Please model this.
Amino acid sequence: MSFIKIGNRKIGAEFPPYIIAELSANHNGSLQKALDTISMAKKCGADAIKLQTYTADTMTIDCDSEEFKIRGGLWDGYNLYDLYKEAQTPFEWHKAMFDHAKSIGITCFSTPFDETAVDLLEDMNAPAYKLASFEATDLPLIRYIASTKKPIIMSTGMANLEEIEEMVTTAKEAGCKDMILLHCISSYPAPIDQSNLKTIKDMEKRFKVQIGLSDHTTSNIASIVATSLGATLIEKHFILSRKEKGPDSEFSIEPQELEALCKSTYDAWSSLGQAGYERKAAEQQNIRFRRSVYFVKDMKAGEKIKQHHIRRIRPSFGLPPKFESELLGKRVKSDIKNGTATSWDVIDD
Model:
């Protein structure tokens, strides 16, 4: 499985996990707040900031019938149109946001929710695209995104195996060469006990592509564990302060948590290393504190070694413990002092 490049960063098993800070609706209607959030994501160590590109009109219609109302959960009582109108990132903000991200050296891309959003993002020269879980069955949109020939990161929340296979096949047939699938639980926030992170290994085996995690839990634990299971990309919703509230604030992490996520996932990835049994450099200094066989009694030349003359103790400058029984009954060539390391040189053949 080769690496995928987004911006100037390589993504793959041989590289630290790619960390995406999801801005989503956390600008709360303020372009300046959006720009400040991008700056903070960079400061915290994220590799990318991700937007969501839609308007209420490209997402749904303004309809008050019961089918268009949300019942239960974080957005209980909202009409879909009103929710998206509140949460949308205006199309006219995109240039300022992309330009700002470029100026401070953080990659910026987005999730398009329809073809007009893809067209806008192409004008922004977006380096990659994200497909949201809720659009996993929108095969015409997948085809349109794939036709750009840019990397696609596809969330699989709510999708069953057949639907994932269909979205992957559709993207590949439409021209997608670089794909990352994100294991995802589309619940906001997501209960950690339903994370089912073992799916990551299974997805990697089935689809032969890189697997990441779109993490909607309220801590970093799932992301760290996912990294240890081979996830090459982690996405978390990011907000300057949850006190500001907003559509996504309840399941978004704050700056100190994003900084901790970047460090912890890097450490988790670093800890994986390579399979092998050679002695590690960090262990070299401690070899001396293994056990070995030492003389623990004074002995005279020619005296026969008995059990009370020797012990298996630390440090390791004597013969290894496995030779203890072979020493018994042998004679020493010269006088021996208590605390002398055993060696074949002092034993009379």
User: Anything to note?
Assistant: The two ends are 59 Å apart (CA to CA). The chain has a mean pLDDT of 96. Residues 14 and 273 are 9 Å apart (CA to CA).
